[in-house]
From TrEMBL:
Organism: Ramlibacter aurantiacus
InterPro entries: ArgE/DapE, ArgE/DapE_CS, Bact_exopeptidase_dim_dom, Peptidase_M20, Peptidase_M20_dimer, Peptidase_M20A
Catalysed conversion reaction: N-succinyl-(2S,6S)-2,6-diaminopimelate + H2O = (2S,6S)-2,6-diaminopimelate + succinate
Protein name stated in the entry: Probable succinyl-diaminopimelate desuccinylase
Residues annotated as domain Peptidase M20 dimerisation: 170-274
Native organism taxonomy: Bacteria, Pseudomonadati, Pseudomonadota, Betaproteobacteria, Burkholderiales
């Protein structure tokens, strides 16, 4: 069996910082490993030196395949100096250090190793699929490319190996990122009356957004939707009236909210001549914890970690926003070995034991899926 700790270290060694990504070599290495275990593999390109990987083995039963997904791109290193080399995969005191160790190459290693170890179960009537994406960190670009190229199956269930410390998360909010553009007329800074200041327009719009009210009740688990103005850019030089200003708005939504209606409400609320563009439009993900497969997976995770289940959801979005609709609305869990608080951090690390736990959890999930598919064919 391929060792998940060794594989995590190998994956960390691939510099897949996004941008620019360069995930193709990493995807090829995983494809080779999976091919040796009998998987059919397919690369879906995402530009120069970039690729997603889809791997399948077996033939699906009535429920469809059990699908695992994760991304191999990682965020930039930041400006702070690292104490541990970011691409060395150094192990110290039971922790693997390196960019992507928690988010989420430890999770990728665990799903691949589990799939390889349980490959013998994948026969007629039982299929496992792995969707390994590039470009997730910049807005699920790789998952979008996979859908555009044609995803050739629906799922029975989906596991997203994002960092949860092996605690099952039943969903996450949607994300609607908007760009508001204010336009004015430039003039000399000593004669502002001759111009039309775009920064003032954007500032008034931003102030109004601070009072925006979502006309929806909070979700019982995901909570209330949120709004944050994350950036404000305007003007080129101090002694000119700025003729352009841009704000970027991060909206996190809950089930039942229509993003087109929300965008219109935001536009009206700003009460300015603001052009509004959509940068990212990703629906939320939610599966009832009472769904039978979810219930059983929660039990498996609790047995392996020794932690009682608590109803949790992720604060981040994931490729599930893109994949779940394309996979037929499959029940979905977010469950991976990474530490959520380590994502995007300097000296990022993932606990060795968490990766080993996750591999065992995924193996049991595959084994039980195979047993149930076998029962359904008898």
């Amino acid at each position: 069996m391929t060792d998940p700790i060794d594989l995590t270290r190998r994956l960390i060694a691939f510099d897949t910082v996004n941008p620019p990504g360069r995930e193709r070599e990493c995807a090829l290495a995983l494809a080779d490993l999976l091919q040796q275990a009998g998987f059919d593999t397919r690369l879906v390109p995402l530009g120069q030196d970039r690729a997603n990987l889809i791997a399948t083995k077996g033939r699906p039963g009535k429920r469809g395949p059990l699908v695992f997904t994760g991304h191999i791109d990682v965020v930039p290193l930041g400006t702070r100096e690292w104490s541990h080399a970011p691409f060395a995969g150094e192990i110290v005191d039971g922790k693997i250090y390196g960019r992507g160790s928690s988010d989420m190459k430890g999770g990728i290693a665990a799903i691949v190793c589990a799939a390889v170890a349980e490959a013998h179960r994948m026969v007629d009537g039982m299929q496992v699929a792995l969707i390994i994406t590039a470009g997730e960190e910049t807005g699920c670009d790789g998952a979008e490319a996979i859908i555009a190229a044609g995803l050739q199956f629906k799922a029975g269930a989906l596991v997203v190996a994002e960092p949860t410390a092996n605690m099952p998360y039943v969903g996450h909010k949607g994300a609607l990122w908007l760009r508001g553009i204010a336009r004015g007329v430039t003039a000399h800074g000593s004669m502002p009356e001759a111009g039309d200041n775009a920064v003032y327009k954007a500032a008034r719009a931003t102030t109004r957004l601070s009072c925006f009210h979502f006309d929806v009740d909070p979700h019982p688990t995901l909570g209330a939707p949120t709004l944050n103005v994350g950036t404000f850019h305007g003007g080129l030089n101090i002694n000119s009236v700025p003729d352009r200003a841009v704000i970027e708005i991060d909206l996190r939504t809950i089930p039942g909210m229509d993003h087109a209606d929300l965008r219109q409400a935001i536009t009206v609320h700003m009460q300015e001549e603001m052009e509004v563009e959509t940068a990212i439009d990703l629906p939320g993900v939610w599966t009832s914890p009472q769904q039978p497969w979810v219930e059983r997976t929660i039990a498996i995770a609790s047995q392996e970690t020794g932690e009682p289940f608590q109803l949790r959801t992720a604060t981040y979005f994931s490729d599930a926003s893109v994949l779940v609709p394309a996979l037929g609305g499959a029940p979905t869990l977010i469950l991976g070995p990474g530490e959520p608080g380590q994502a995007h951090q300097t000296d990022e690390w993932c606990a060795v034991e968490r990766i080993q736990q996750a591999t065992r959890i995924y193996r049991r999930m595959i084994a039980e899926w195979a047993e149930q598919d076998q029962e359904n064919t008898q």
